[in-house]
Amino acid sequence: MGWRILARRWKVSEGELDLVAVDPLGTLVGLEVRGRRSARTGSALESIDRRHVARLRAALVRYAISEPVGHQALRLDLVALDRSATGWRMVRHAGIDGW
């Protein structure tokens, strides 16, 4: 799909990015991957609060500074997964904004 994965489980004092990638348009993207076995505990998006988003943003900025890859912009995305009888499936891939 044109994405280039740069790092997996990238950890710094600011936080951890599950994946760091460059999308086809040249945007450096920090991806937070959340899975839910059931709806009982709420959705993946509901599990991320403002503090968590702030840590993710700080980690992405730190990555951009420490590992220059010639990106055009920065973005945080959430990949939400659901567990079914046949395994995990992606139910949503969306930008985390409005925080």
What can you see in these coordinates?
This protein has 99 residues and is of the alpha+beta class. The chain is 17% helix and 48% strand. The model has no long low-confidence stretch (mean pLDDT 82).
Write the layout of secondary structure elements.
Blueprint: E1 4-12, E2 15-22, E3 27-36, H1 50-66, E4 73-84, E5 87-95
Parallel strand pairs: 3-4
Antiparallel strand pairs: 1-2, 2-3, 4-5
**Overall CATH architecture:** 3-Layer(aba) Sandwich
- Class derived from helix and strand content: alpha+beta
Largest sheet: 5 strands, mixed
Helix content: 10-25%
Q: Which fold name fills CATH's third level, the topology?
A: Trna Endonuclease, Chain: A, domain 1
Distance between the termini: 28 Å
Summarize the structure.
With 99 residues, the chain is of the alpha+beta class. The protein is built from one helix and five strands, in the order E-E-E-H-E-E. The mean pLDDT is 82.
Keywords:
17% helix; Trna Endonuclease, Chain: A, domain 1; alpha+beta; 5-stranded mixed β-sheet; globular
